[in-house]
From TrEMBL:
Main location: cytoplasm
Catalyses which reaction(s): beta-D-fructose 1,6-bisphosphate + H2O = beta-D-fructose 6-phosphate + phosphate
Binding residues annotated for Mg(2+) 1, in chain numbering: 93, 117, 119
Gene: fbp
NCBIfam families (alphabetical): PRK09293.1-1 (NF006778), PRK09293.1-3 (NF006779)
Source organism (scientific name): Flavobacterium enshiense DK69
EC identifiers of the protein: 3.1.3.11
Name used for this protein in its record: Fructose-1,6-bisphosphatase class 1
Keywords: Carbohydrate metabolism, Cytoplasm, Hydrolase, Magnesium, Metal-binding
Family label: Belongs to the FBPase class 1 family.
Amino acid sequence: MKQRNNTLGEFIIEKQEEFKYSSGELSRIINAIRLAAKVVNYKVNKAGLVDIVGAAGEQNVQGEDQQKLDVYANEVFIQTLINREIVCGIASEENDDFIAIHGKAGDDNNKYVVLMDPLDGSSNIDVNVSVGTIFSVYRRVTPIGTPVTLEDFLQPGDHQVAAGYVIYGTSTMLVYTTGHGVNGFTLNPAIGTFYLSHPNMQYPKDGKIYSVNEGNYIHFPQGVKDYIKYCQMEEGDRPYTSRYIGSLVSDFHRNMIKGGVYIYPTSSKAPKGKLRLLYECNPMAFIAEQAGGKASDGYQRIMEIKPTELHQRVPFFCGSQNMVEKAEEFMAKYK
Ligand code: P6P
C-alpha cells in the first residue's frame, strides 16, 4: 500500500488512539520535542557561522567540557516542555539534579517525566560530524498532585511510554516509538515540516558492521576482545566492516538501517562503561527492541536494569539481534 506522505503532526493525530491511557498529553510531549528539534536544528546548522561553537568554559555533571550548543539545546528542550505544561519533571545529562516542574497554578497535576541527552556527541560539533538528541518518557509513579521525586525517574526501561532521538546529520530526522513500532520522520527545512520518510523501521537480524572504539582495545574485557577478533576473522561473511563515528545516535541510526552492532563496554578507563542508562541506553534500547533489535549490558536486557542513580553508567551492546547475541556468547565465557 502506498504510504501516504504523512507529516509528523498528522501521524501523531492518527496514532492518538494508540495512547490508550493518554488524554493527549503524550502527543503533546512528542509535539513539544518536534518544535524544540526544529529550533536546535537551526542552531546546529549554523554552528560554524556564529559564535556558539567551542566550550562554554563550564563542565557538565560528567566533568566534560560543556559546548555552548549543549547548553543551548538543553535550555530549548527544557523551556519548550515547561511552556507546554505537560510534564512534572525533567532530567538531563547537563543537569546534576532533576528539574521539578509545577503548573502555572503551582500544581503537580502533570503525569509524565522526560529524561534526555539534549545534544549527544557534542564533541563532534567543532569537526562538523552529526550529533543527536535522545529522549525518554515515563508516566510518574508517585501520586499526581504531589511534587515529583527521584523515584519517578529511577524506573526500569521497560516502563518507558515513549523514546526517540533526533539526528542532526546530512538531513535532520526524528525517530521515535510509543511501543507500537519505530517510525522515522525527515525534516524539510524549507517549510519546517517533518515528513514520514521511514515507516516501521526494522533492525536487520544480521549485519556486517561493528561499531566500537578500538583505541580502547587493551582495556576491554576478554569477551569483547574475543568478539572483535571474531569480527575480523576471514570466515564466512567476515571480516566485518568497522564503522565508529563517535556519536551514538549516528552509529545507532546507520546500524538500524544497514544492520550492525554498537558496543561501549566496560574498560579499565570506564569501569562501569561510559553511556548513561537513563537517557542514552534505555531510550535507544526501547527503539532497538521495537525495531526487532536487541540491547543488553553484555549479559542482561538493558531495560530490565533497575536504576539506582540519575547519571549511572552501564556497558551497552545494541543492534542486530544475532550480532548482539554472538557478542553475549563471548562475554558469557568469562562470566
Ligand atoms: P568515545 C559521545 O560523547 C558518546 O556519549 C556517544 O555519543 C559516543 O558513541 C561515545 O560517547 C564516544 O565515546 O570514548 O569512544 O569517544
